[in-house]
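To whoever is on call:

I kicked off a structure prediction for a single chain this morning and the downstream step that reads the tokens threw a length-mismatch warning. I double-checked the sequence; it's 341 residues and nothing unusual in it as far as I can see. Pasting both halves so you can look.
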Amino acid sequence: MKTFKKIGKTFGLAAILSATAFAGAEAHVTFLDKQAKQDSTILATLQLPHGCDGKATTEVRVKLPEGFVFAKPQPKAGWELEVIKGDYQKTYDNHGDKVKSGAIEIRWKNGNLSDDFYDTFVIQGKVSGVEAGTSLAFPVTQMCGDTVAAWDQVAKEGDDAHGLKSPAPLLKVVAGEGHGHDHDDMAGMDMTGKTSMDMSGIAGLGAAAPAGETVKAGDLEISGGFAKAMLPGQPVGGGFFTVKNNGQTDDRLVSVSSPASGEVQIHEMETKDNVMRMRQLKDGIAIAAGETVKLEPGNLHLMFRKVKTPFKQGDTVPVTLTFEKAGKVDLVLQVLSAQGK
């Protein structure tokens, strides 16, 4: 049930009446697209229309139902991200790999979404092993400082869900299209020769080496550059490479840019006690003398934001790396499958 309360104390009657009032006004947390096809990879987009009784939202927690697997949240500028991992009730097939555990809860934390504004929170995941006609419930906890709103009511079979005051967001699973490819398959298909993003004429590419080749800048060697294929409509992508410092002086990667996206951020991902935390490294990455630093999935990585055209396997993505001492270096990333293969 959605209740408004202060952490550690009961909320007042006026606040409860206020909560009931806007709940009755259909101001619920819902999905932008309320249907999902069987065995398809989707972008589940939650719509958050308001704060808690006029207060700004500072944290959003989403519990993921069984049958929505391989989940990856979309980071949001100004918010910290946590992914709680645990065991699935069943075993799922992920391109031949048997997977028994994964993300079971997503948390966007330490944000500040005013009650005057509306925003969305996006989770990529696959609907797997769910019968058509089933509705998957995603209980949401909305936190506004010391005030909490729970959107977690689910109607019993045969009851009218419209009578709930604080319904959990639902995705209704509908029949798929036989043997058609889902989005995840499309993201991993070989698109060589069929790329939709021609980078050959983009300014700023300069004399960058062909994709995958080692680039040298002073004492630095940059190699193994690649990006992951993205889902259609996905605005955020990931990039990776390795930097080796052969010199005797420390250096630092201070910024990255690309004509393929509106912004490129440097991020770090860390998993501890089954909780994954992602944060932006605004000071960049230190490249110590004689050391090698690897940007790889699940660790240090580039985050492409506001991507103009989703990366497809076989495409290339040009980037400009700016180092504190080595200066600017042009690099071309080869786009691999969504699994980074």
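Update from on-call: the warning came from a stale cache, not from the record. Cleared it. Sanity check on the structure: The longest helix spans residues 13-24.
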